[in-house]
Amino acid sequence: MTKTAESFQFKAEIQQLLNILVHSLYTDKEIFLRELISNASDALNRVQFEMLTNRDVLDPDAELAIWLSVDEDAKTITLRDTGIGMTREELIENLGTIAKSGAKEFLAKLKESKEQASNIIGQFGVGFYSVFMVAKEVEVVSRSFRKDAEAVRWVSDGSETYTIETADKTDRGTTITIKLSDDAHEFASLYRLENIIKKHSDFVTYPIYVGEGDDQRAANQQTAIWRQSPSEVDDEKYAEFYKQLTLDFTDPLAHIHLAVDAPVQVKALLYIPPTREGSMFSLRKDPGLKLYSRNVLIEEYTTDLLPNHFRFVHGVVDSEDISLSVSREAMQNTRVISKLKSLLTKRVTRALEDMGKNDPEKYKKFWSEFSPFIKEGIATDPTAISSLAPLLRFPCSTHEPDELISLKDYVENMPEGQEEIYYLIADSVAAAANSPHMDRFKARNIPVLFMVDTMDTFMLTTFREFDGHKLQNVETAQLDEAAEDAATDEAAKEKLPDDQFAEVVARFKSVLDERVEDIREAKHLRNSPVRLVAPDGAEGQEMERIRRMLEKDYEVPKRVLEINRGHPIVQNIAGLLKSDFGKADLLIEQLFDNALLAEGLHPNPAEMLPRIQKLMEMLGK
Ligand code: ADP
Ligand code: MG
C-alpha cells in the first residue's frame, strides 16, 4: 500500500521562528530535550486524566512512560511516549500553526526589544520548535487515544513546509525521531542525553527510560519531593535531596518546605546550607533558586525570587502560575515572580526568626556563618530593615563574652527609665569590655551592645532605631545628669585640686601637642585614667570607621583627650611634675598610647615596647 504525503505550509510566524531556531547561535541547545520531555509529560498527564473519566481509551494498560534511544551511527534520537497522542487535525493544529506555544509573542518581543534571540530562547523555551536548533529533519508519528483515529506521520526539515501522511503505528502515543544536524552530533550519545535529563527533567513524574534490553533504566529520579507533603518526607530525604541539588557532602543547616495556593500557587523547598562557602565541589556556586513550573525546569538560577541578601539560600520553587512558553504572558510572569518573591522572603525570614527562638544552638551556627548577609541586607535594603532587625545578635556588656543576645532581649532587660539602646564600636569583645567609654555604664549597670564586626559599622549608617528605641553610641551618650554627677562624686572622692590638675593638663598639652585636638577634664570616667573622644561636631565614629576601611589614605581626625582627675595614675603624674619631668612624660606618652589602643586607633602597638620596658625598670628603683 502506498501512502501519499500531503504537503502543508507553516504559518508565516512559524516560518520566521523556524528560521531563527535553525540558525540559532544559542549555546544551550540541549534545552530542546527539556521541551520535548515536557510535552511528553503533559501528554501523559492528559491521558491519565482522560482515563479517569473515559474507559474507552486505546491501550488502557500501557505503562505511562517516556523512552529515549539513540542511533549513534545514524545520528538520530528517538523519543517515545504513551501519552494522549494526536490525530491528523491535532497535528496540523498543534505543530503547524502558532497554537499555544507563545511563539508569536516571542517573535514580537524580539522585534520590539531588539534583543538577541539567543538571549531569550533558553529563558522560557520556545516549545516543540526548539528541536530545530539541533535537527535537520524531524519526524513525529502519533496515534491518538481515540480508538477510531488513524496514526499519522508529520515530517519537516524546518523550512517552509511540512508533510503529513497516514502511518502504521498501532499503539497509543507519540514517537519523535530527530535527525541531528551536522553541528549537533554531540547529542547522539546516550550518556550525554542522560545527563541532560538529570539536569533539566530529573523530577518529571513519569519514568524516562534510556538504553535497550537488560540495560534499560530510568534516567530520572521521578519524585519531586517538594511536591510531597512535609509529613511524607523525613529529615534524611530532605538531606539527600539537598546533597543531590548542591553536591554538598554535609547536611543542610535547615530546610523550609512550603505549599501555598494564594495569592500565588507555589510549592517550594528551600535550604540554608551548613556553611557560607559551600562545599568545594558544590554544583551550585552561583546564587539563585531552581524554578520549575509543573515539573519542568524553567530557570536553573533564578535570582529574582529572593532579595540579594538571601542569596545563600538554595532550593527549588515550583509554581503552576508561571507560564512555560516564552513571554506568552511575560507581564503576568513578572507579576507572579514578584508575588513569589514577597512570599518566599517572608517565609525565609520567619523560619530564621523561629530558629532563633526555638533552637538557639542551631541559630548560633547560622549566625556565625551568615550574619554578614543579614547585616548587608539592613545596610543596603531599607525596606528590609524591620524584618531583618529581629535576626540580629550581639555580644552585650552585661552577659558572658561569648553569649549573643537579640535586640528584643536587650530592650526587655533595659533598666527602668532607659530609653535608648546603647552600643559601643570596637575591634573585639575584649577591647569593648575594657573600653574607657564603658566606665559610666559599668558604674550604673547599664547594658551596652558591642559592635565588633566590620559589617556593623556599615549597618549602623542606616539602622538607627529598633522598636521605637534609638540606637545610641556610648561615646556620645547623654545619661541622666543628676544621677551621673552623684556617681562621679562617689567614685572620685580624691580629686586633684584645681591648681595641680591645671599643671597636669598643661604638661599633657606640651607633650602631646599636635597629636590631640584638645585636652580637658573627663566627666564620665571611673576606672580609666584617660579616654579619647571625637571633637564636638565631628563625623560620627561609624562614618570614620567606614572611611578608614574604604579610603586608603584616610587619616583619622585628631581626638580630644579627656583626663580623669580622680585616677591614681593622674595623681602620680601630678606628683612627678614636682620632681621628675622625664618620668611624668613617659607616663603621659604611655597613657596616650593606651587610649589609642583602646579605640583601635593605634597604628603600631609594638612601638610601645621600649617605653614599657623603661617603665618596668623604674618600678624596682
Ligand atoms: P506548549 O507545550 O507550550 O503547548 P509546544 O510547542 O511545546 O507548546 O507544543 C505544542 C503542542 O503540541 C502542545 O500543546 C501539544 O498539544 C502538542 N504536542 C507536542 N508534543 C506532544 C506529544 N508528545 N504528545 C501529544 N501532544 C503533543
Ligand atoms: Mg511544550
- The fraction of residues in strands falls at 15-25%
Largest sheet: 9 strands, mixed
**Which sequence of strands runs across the widest sheet?**
1-6-5-4-7-3-2-8-9
Radius of gyration: 36 Å
Summarize the structure in words.
- The chain is built from 20 helices and 21 strands.
- Strands 1-6-5-4-7-3-2-8-9 form a nine-stranded mixed β-sheet. It has a five-stranded mixed β-sheet with strand order 10-11-14-12-13, with helices on both faces. A four-stranded mixed β-sheet has the order 16-15-18-17.
- The protein folds into four domains: 6-218, Heat Shock Protein 90; 225-358, Ribosomal Protein S5, domain 2, CATH 3.30.230.80; 364-473, 3-Layer(aba) Sandwich (Rossmann fold); 488-619, Heat shock protein 90, C-terminal domain (Four Helix Bundle (Hemerythrin (Met), subunit A), Up-down Bundle), CATH 1.20.120.790.
- It starts with 5 loop residues before the first strand and ends with a helix.
- The longest helix has 29 residues, at 330-358.
- β12 and β13 form a beta hairpin.
- It has 621 residues and is α+β, with helices and mostly antiparallel strands.
- Bound molecules: adenosine-5'-diphosphate and magnesium ion (MG).
- Adenosine-5'-diphosphate binds next to α2 and α3.
- Adenosine-5'-diphosphate is lined by residues 35, 39-40, 43, 81, 83-86, 94-95, 99-101, 127-128, 174, 324-325.
